[in-house]
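Onboarding guide, step 5: your first structure request.
Type a short instruction followed by the sequence, for example:

Predict the 3D structure of this protein.
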Amino acid sequence: MKITNVEPIVLKAPLGEPWRIGTAVFTSMSSVLVRVDTDEGITGYGECMVRFAPAAAAAVVEEILKPVAVGQDPFEVELIWDRMYQVMRGRGHSKGYMLEAMSGVDIALWDVMGKALGQPIHRILGSYGRTTLPVYASSLLFKPTEVLVREAEELAAQGYGAMKLKIGQGVEPDMRNVREIRRALGDGVKLMVDANCAFDTLTALQLGRQLEAAGVYWFEEPVAPENLDGYTKLARAFDMPVAGGESEFNRWAVKELMVREGIDIIQPDLARCGGFTEARK
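The system replies with structure tokens like these:
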């Protein structure tokens, strides 16, 4: 089997109301799908998670990654991944749009393999035997406290046993939302928070102590991804788990967080970190 074409497909849709988080405001949602065709008529699809300028990721797929992949055997996914990465690593492009674009191609290759073998991807990767997985509702965005409480109650009524609240507005407003949601839900629903890298280390430390006292289940992306010393300081200061990794793009960056003991829960994003091939490492 050989790859005959790689096509990026830009998707963009307006939002009914802006999504506000700690470090951005979104008025639309964007993504890039990647379609990989083969000479045996099997087509695979992948996704590049691109929130801004999706045309940039599409250009990387079309102009840099497509020439690498076309003509290759999709089952040689490790070789294709390494060749895609090598094209730009010497030019400093080992994160960001390059890895997001690679993610879409890689996921599509795994989709091709799954379809060719007639198996779901989890079995090809080496299934752990699970038939169900716990889920949580994500996310409660920046809105008035009374609206957040109502949305949290609605999610709990739907059966969600855990949900995530976006924070990053400041210690007092963030804690007000946490307290009111916790009061409404009681202790039977897990509440996690996600700062989307909004805080400096000192503010995250001050807020984190209060979050821990309030029974928050984890504190996600409290500081900027390059602030490795901050992650380590926070992870050592709390019994509450520190989560993150969504803003990292390869195994070497995540390894550094792990070696420094700066993270308790790793959250790689398949559509950003290089796809299945990189995430499993």
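Each response can be followed by summary notes, for example: The mean pLDDT is 95.
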